[in-house]
Amino acid sequence: MSRLKVALMLLCFGFMFIVLDIPIATNFSYPHEYENSNKVIGEYQYYNIASNYGASCTYKMLDDSKSKTKEPETKINQQKGIKSSAPKITKVIDKVYFKNVQIDILNDFVGFILILIGSILLVKCAKQFKLAILAAISGLIVHGIMFALPFIINGIDLVNALFFIGMIYLAINVVTIYLVSAALLRMIPGPWCRDERKWCKILWFASFASQCLATFTFWLGSDFGMLKTLSWVIFGFTIFIQLAFWYIYMRAKDYIRGTYEKYYVKKIN
Question: Which of 14, 62, 84, 166 is most buried, by CB atoms within 10 Å?
Answer without folding.
Answer: 14
